[in-house]
Amino acid sequence: MRHDIPFAAPGQVIGLLGGSFDPAHAGHVHITREALKRFGLDAVWWLVSPGNPLKERGPAQMQRRLAHARAVMQHPRVTITGIEARLGTRYTAQTLRAITALYPTQRFVWLMGADNLAQFHLWQDWRAIMDTTPVGVLARPGERISARMSRAAALYAPARIPGRMSRTLRTAQAPAWCFVNVPMMDVSSSAIRAAGAWSA
């Protein structure tokens, strides 16, 4: 089945939220809506990944995850896409290089929860991501302190944009990142799987 290549108008600023979405849930919806508002984004794309290199167990079947994500996240400015499978990329740095080559007239902001910032230094080519793409970080339960004390946060402290200026991230030149505290929703894919509400 064809994995779509999303449409993007020239000059748009698009937030990219990557993950296995195994399964997508209300927490993903919440931070997506907050990202649109807080960072002044024109659109957000959910990049439903073929698999997470940092996780041993493979996710549920791709088409099932895409279909569920589209049922959960219904917003006119949010696109659910399996573009990584189409591009053949597995790591975020590879995906960003491919997407920016495909969309040379658009700007992209990488979005992540604070839990991902805490272990961002484990990602392949993580410094290349920070050096080329603005990053928007949204607080999640229990991860605020570890994220702010993380290796990435320390190394890129001079590039941090204050939360009160979060909407300037859309036009900032990398390296630039912004940590925003948002009303938090304590729900996770792993908890949903553990409860037996979602199975591969």
UniProtKB/TrEMBL annotation:
EC number of this enzyme: 2.7.7.18
InterPro entries recorded: Cyt_trans-like (IPR004821), NadD/NMNAT (IPR005248), Rossmann-like_a/b/a_fold (IPR014729)
GO biological process: NAD+ biosynthetic process
Pathway linked to the protein: Cofactor biosynthesis; NAD(+) biosynthesis; deamido-NAD(+) from nicotinate D-ribonucleotide: step 1/1
Reactions catalysed according to its record: nicotinate beta-D-ribonucleotide + ATP + H(+) = deamido-NAD(+) + diphosphate
Keyword field contains NAD: yes
Keywords: ATP-binding, NAD, Nucleotide-binding, Nucleotidyltransferase, Pyridine nucleotide biosynthesis, Transferase
SUPFAM superfamilies linked: Nucleotidylyl transferase
Keyword Oxidoreductase (UniProt): no
Segments forming a coiled coil: none
HAMAP family found in the cross-reference section: NaMN_adenylyltr (MF_00244)
Known function: Catalyzes the reversible adenylation of nicotinate mononucleotide (NaMN) to nicotinic acid adenine dinucleotide (NaAD).
NCBIfam families linked: nicotinate (nicotinamide) nucleotide adenylyltransferase, PRK00071.2-2
Family membership: Belongs to the NadD family.
Name of protein: Probable nicotinate-nucleotide adenylyltransferase
